[in-house]
Structure prediction request, 293 residues.
Amino acid sequence: MFTCRECIDSLLDYLDGDLSAEQRAHLDAHLNACTPCVEFVKTYRATTRLCKEALQRSMPTEVAARLGSFLRENIHPAHAKQGAPVKPKG
Amino acid sequence: MLTTSTMEPSDPADALLSRAQGGDIAAFEALVGLHQDQVFALAYRMTRSEADAAEIAQEAFLAAYRNLTEFRGEAAFGSWLHRITANQALMRLRHKKVVGQVEESMESPTFNERGTLVDAVADFARNAEGQALDAELARAIAQATDALPEEYRRVFLLKDVDGLSYEDIAQLLQESVPAIKSRLHRARLSLRAAIDGYYAEKE
Prediction:
């Protein structure tokens, strides 16, 4: 059975599904017996979700407007590599 | 009325890409509209500069337009766009000395000599469940992310916030996948501790 340290050191691979069956069994056995580590796993997992939400940002309206003008000035169908319209593959 | 002979893909975003590839500028502009927030946000988080992020978005979408025919499906277009945005942000950062506004710090759990966790662990995940993120917590997270050493911050942002693959990040940062995973784990531990500290202070 893993120690708390081994359990926490393996969390990334555990959540990615990259642990071997044996390692996973050691980790599950530890989690069955260790409430602090169960809570730790929950908060480790929640960290990614909370950070992702906290760090979202939209393109400001004036930046979007400048991007629109920039692209209209700089793109022309002839600049795309294909030169001729591409038919979608069926 | 739709006919069965139409060659348009069934996914609306794929159909948009397909029309853009055929030279339909309005369809390309619609694709830009679908991705502009994510592209801007990625570039802004990496460079911490709105002006740089705006220029990077322009360069990224122009490059996307010039390579439009190479994409098979809108998902491939989206991930390519994120990779090129990250690459352009990293190139700018290489030419700039990043001025740290905060002391860099990393927090990690404490164990005793037997490898047992000695920190008290409170389940903040339950507090945060199903609620809109409060502005104060969002600020605490932004500060904690800024306080990560730069090489950890970049990996965390690219993987957990922008959803790039380990392989793409390893290639962009010219590091091995195990090195990327190790940094990601340490960044998550540090941010977990910061969020834990935020909730502990609130109680």
